[in-house]
Amino acid sequence: MTIRRDYSWIGPTKPPPEIVTPLRVAIVPTPDFTLMSLSCLIEFLRLAADESDFSRPVYCSWSILSEGKRSIVSSSGLAITASGDIAEAAEHDVLVIHGGLLHSTKPMPDYIYKSIERAMKTNIPVIGLCTGQFLLAEMGLLHRRRCAVHFSLESTLRKHFPEVIPITDQQVVEDGRFITCPGGLAAISLGTRLVERYCGASRAAKVLHYLMADKDKLLDTASKADMSFIGEHCQDRRVTNAIGIMRQRMYDRCDIAEIADQVGISKRELARLFDRHLRVSPAEYWRDIRLSSARWMILNTDRSVTQIAYECGFSDSSHLIRWFQKRFDRTPTELRKAAIAVGTR
């Protein structure tokens, strides 16, 4: 009999930072929902939620909601058990109505429509995923609004809801408080959009690298533009792998030699490759990733400079402030005050 080896050593070695989770997603599946869209979205959130592949819900959390936590059966016949009651939807930052087979003969539960109505009253953004946008259209919420829909369902949308503007060439469409996505692999673009907005582009880029995904093929134009400053296009996989590890270990203050060892080369060879391809040292590149992440947190969150320093892998706030001022010509506090003064946050 084969004895399973102990792999616990590759897990987290210290507790996660204590923060208020910036992105909490409530997902309400309809009867006969599609599994692929759901798994793509949840896996993206899971990987964005923590460092590496640790899966702790630190920066993102997600809940599958139904009335009374009842299980919901997918279009493939597989059932999932809800993790929360529909009444908990108000405790989240966004509400995802996850659709599936339009021709399903199963009745649509009334609690799904009521959850959308409650979200409207509390100003929670509502997302129609897969065919979830059809429920929004039924409620008259997409009147004269742009709506992402799968090309195979464009004629159906036009027939039943002529006042809705169908969009078939974009993976994610945002119009007012409503976001729509046709499902499938496009759910990865939806996950990218949400994580960028609530957690920062560095965290979204970390996920795409971990998924070994080609963002130029997966993401729509808007998302690619938002992430264009992350990383470098390099043909040497040793460099891109090292960058990916740096993104995954944002607040883990390990040595560059450890990064090189994970890539399978020496510290000196890694430095030579970075100098050849990027014209900076590995330490400088890693610090710049952390500074970019810190800048996003300064502009988009109310976390203290001390907390941000910890989350971005700096030894203390003084260390962050010193490098931040060198990089952006002002301190974190000065940048935050300037942003507030001009009304950008």
Describe the structure.
The chain is an alpha/beta fold and 345 residues long. It has two domains: 15-198, Rossmann fold; 231-341, Arc Repressor Mutant, subunit A (Orthogonal Bundle), CATH 1.10.10. Helices cover 45% and strands 12% of the residues. The chain has helices at 35-48, 110-121, 132-138, 154-160, 186-199, 201-210, 215-218, 221-226, 237-248, 256-263, 267-278, 282-300, 305-311, 317-328, 332-341, and strands spanning 23-29, 60-66, 72-73, 79-80, 84-85, 94-98, 126-129, 146-148, 165-167, 173-175, 178-181. The strands form three sheets. The protein has a seven-stranded mixed beta sheet with strand order 5-2-1-6-7-11-10, with helices on both faces. A two-stranded antiparallel sheet has the order 3-4. The termini are far apart.
Summarize the structure.
Mean pLDDT is 90; it is low at 225-230. This protein folds into 2 domains: 15-198, Rossmann fold (3-Layer(aba) Sandwich), CATH 3.40.50; 231-341, Homeodomain-like (Arc Repressor Mutant, subunit A), CATH 1.10.10.
Radius of gyration from the CA trace?
A: 22 Å
Number of helices: 15
Strand order of the largest sheet: 5-2-1-6-7-11-10
Structural class: alpha/beta
The major sheet is characterized as: 7 strands, mixed
| Global morphology | globular
How many β-strand stretches? 11
Instruction: Give the domain tally.
Output: 2
What name goes with the CATH superfamily of the largest domain?
A: Class I glutamine amidotransferase (GATase) domain
For the record, the CATH class of the largest domain is Alpha Beta
Would you identify the CATH architecture of the largest domain? 3-Layer(aba) Sandwich
N-to-C series of helices and strands: EHEEEEEHEHEHEEEHHHHHHHHHHH
